[in-house]
Design goal:
The chain has 12 helices and 14 strands. By secondary structure, the chain is an alpha/beta fold. The protein folds into 2 domains: 181 residues, Rossmann fold (3-Layer(aba) Sandwich), CATH 3.40.50; 124 residues, Rossmann fold, CATH 3.40.50.920. A 7-stranded mixed β-sheet has the order 3-2-4-5-7-6-12, with helices on both faces. Helix 3 runs parallel beside helix 4 and helix 9 packs across helix 10.
């Protein structure tokens, strides 16, 4: 076990993979100087410019080159700096990376890991603070993961590098400095949720940075005698349906909380899946359908807070536990 930051865990995962597999390479803007969040720190000095490749400022070119390299037998890690910039490479992601295996009958695979930091980035406004995970979950052919801790960032990046399908790897923009113990021998399967706390009164499902907000809410609710089972999905596709359904069968109540806009968000998919299988009271919390503002007061309006989660949980516990509600 070693104490690492979220960024250091990613560097360690790449370092370990690149030492054991010459096919693993990195390409993207600023990777040669360590990346804008230090998520590639020191790798250029270890592996050189032929494997840590700085590119021009063209997300379409970066993604297109990565898809070609993958089809030729390499295992590229593609750095898009932030998920907001992925829109400049959507044709390569949607029509090339995601569909190639299907359209050519499995003759070629696209084992790329596309790193695109997600979420609200403090004081960075509408074009640098988006949570677009549901776009990628919606696309057949893509795997989507969203690690929330240094351990998950290490283990899931190793799992993503071993995957034969394109992986959208969503690291939160404000988690890079978060620290925790990392066991480099620990494997985590893509699609395996983490039951963070056990409880019998309410199932709370989340992912990415919102896990830490939910943990604070769970502590507040515990002080009121309310036991919450907190589940961090870690992977959004595939997602751990069985763990969530088993928990909801026990608690009879489901609350999904995510940083992304609530309208059309992945929370709706989780709620629908559960209520189609169980008599379960269900709610979801997400951001309002507004751009993220630059001013702190406006930015706060786009966040799902501890108090919102606590208040929603309290309202649910006042309801008939056999009542099924999806809002």
């Amino acid at each position: 076990m070693a104490l690492m930051s979220y960024a250091q865990a990613a560097v360690a995962a790449l370092d370990d993979a690149m030492k054991t597999d010459d096919r693993v390479i990195v390409l993207g803007e600023d990777v040669g100087r360590g990346g804008i969040f230090a998520q590639y720190a020191g790798l250029a000095q270890t592996f050189g410019p032929e494997r840590i490749i700085d590119t021009p400022i063209s997300e379409a070119a970066i993604m297109g080159a990565g898809v070609g390299m993958a089809l030729a037998g390499m295992r590229p890690v593609i750095e898009l700096r932030v998920t907001d910039f992925a829109m400049c490479a959507m044709d390569e992601i949607v029509n090339q990376a995601a569909k190639n295996r299907y359209m050519f009958g499995g003759q070629g695979t696209v084992p790329v890991v596309v790193r695109m930091p997600m979420g609200i980035w403090d004081a960075s406004a509408a074009q640098h603070s988006q949570s677009l995970e549901n776009w990628f979950v919606h696309l057949p052919g893509l795997v989507v993961v969203a690690p929330s801790t240094p351990q998950d960032n290490y283990s899931l990046l190793r799992a993503a590098l071993a995957c034969e399908d394109p992986v959208i790897f969503l690291e939160h923009k404000t988690l890079w400095g978060a620290t925790g113990e990392v066991d480099t021998r620990k494997a985590i399967e893509i699609g395996q949720a983490d039951v963070v706390t056990a409880g019998n009164d309410l199932t709370l499902v989340t992912w990415s940075r919102q896990r830490h907000i939910c943990q604070q809410a769970v502590e507040k609710l515990a002080s009121q005698g309310i036991e919450v089972e907190l589940i961090d999905l870690r992977s959004l596709w595939p997602w751990d349906k069985q763990t969530v359904i088993d928990s909801c069968r026990k608690t009879g109540r489901l609350l999904v909380a995510h940083e992304a806009v609530q309208v059309g968000g992945f929370g709706a998919e989780i709620v629908s899946t559960v209520v189609e299988n169980l008599p379960c009271q269900a709610r979801r919390l997400g951001a309002p359908r507004i751009p993220v503002g630059y001013a702190a007061e406006l930015e706060a309006l786009a966040r799902v807070s501890v108090d919102q989660i606590v208040a929603c949980a309290q309202r649910m516990l006042d309801h008939n536990p056999n009542q099924t509600v999806a809002t």
